[in-house]
Amino acid sequence: MPKMKTHKGSAKRFKVTGTGKVKRNSSHNAHKFAAKSGSQKRRLDKQHLLKDADVRRVKKMMPYHF
Questions:
Q1: N or C terminus of the chain with fewer C-beta within 10 Å?
Q2: Model pTM greater than 0.70?
Q3: CATH architecture group of domain 1-25+40-66
């Protein structure tokens, strides 16, 4: 059976923690910062954990990262 390939777009967007959880970056953090408050911009800078419902899909796309 051939090797499974890593989905490179997913590999660039998601990181796996040491305990196996998946981190993601916030959206809406690329432009139009003048319209956003300072607290919103600080909140968007942080990384968040992926919801459990989406982790299964990401694990399929990145088989060698877990």
A1: N
A2: yes
A3: Irregular (4.10)
